[in-house]
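Hi again,

Forgot to attach this to my earlier email, sorry! This is the prediction with pyridoxal-5'-phosphate bound. I've pasted everything inline since the attachment limit keeps bouncing my files.
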Amino acid sequence: MLPQLNGKSYPKEVCLNGIWQKPEEAKISVFDRGFMLGDSLYEVIPFYDGKVFALKEHLSRLKYCLQEISLDFDVEMLIPYIEDSVRRSDNAGKDAAVYLQVSRGAAPRSHFFPERSEPIFLLYSFPVNLSGFENKHWKLLISEDIRWHRCDIKTTSYLANTMLNDKSYKLGLNETLLVKEGMITEGSHSTAFFVKDKIIFTHPEGHQILSGITRKIVLDLCQNLGLEIREEAFPFSEIENADEVFLTGTTTQIMAISEIQFQDNILFQAVESGPITRKLQEAFIQKTRNP
Ligand SMILES: Cc1ncc(COP(=O)(O)O)c(C=O)c1O
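Structure tokens for the complex follow:
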């Protein structure tokens, strides 16, 4: 049995190319392009009380990313494995998530895509507590967005994201908010929303952000609740004037922000979740728990 690290444990079993095995027995080639070049994609799919949520949306984003990197792979064949992964783990009937990765596979190392390779997929389920997020809040650090120009591709090449996230982790904060040319793009692993004068702002879709599945769900909820939302980037200089800030993500869900730090200054502070954040959190709980 592999040991725990930082309070996180390895799953008992992983599914590599459709074969369930112990993680210490699962093997990939040293020439796997995901390992060598980051030539691979991933998704994290949530399960609420054992039931999969927004599977179609996650698979359609994976399909889009596969097209963008010219990788031919049938995402539909993953469905039984995704469902099985929770059923055959200790997470059956509980809140959980499935980590799923597709790599181009092994080929002699080259900068161009090889004519032929056998893509490989890996997936496993892990426990995650998806309840009580509405009673929590996060503190953020602001940093320059040093990532590449195709942040819409959910690649496993997350070195820049992890470097940025590690900065806030080292300071005992929860997430790093990214700024590009004076505008907030998103978090290192989350989508950012700002509320000012009852209007909600979030960065438009495109190459500068990942099109978050939770982002889309929140946009729909805003429409249903009659909340005004603008898909416009929020300026860094306006953070001090924001009324509410929240982040979204598959396991982050809708997280209220209580503090934003930049260098040695605190730009934003809130003692409790704002009314719009709370309204959206309530609607989100309703949607995920009673679909
Ligand atoms: C950079 C980035 N933005 C946004 C998100 C949120 O996306 P989703 O709501 O699909 O989890 C993630 C999730 O991993 C992310 O890595």
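The chain has a mean pLDDT of 96. The pocket of pyridoxal-5'-phosphate is lined by residues 161, 186, 189-191, 210, 212-215, 248-250 (CB under 6 Å).

That should be everything now.

G.
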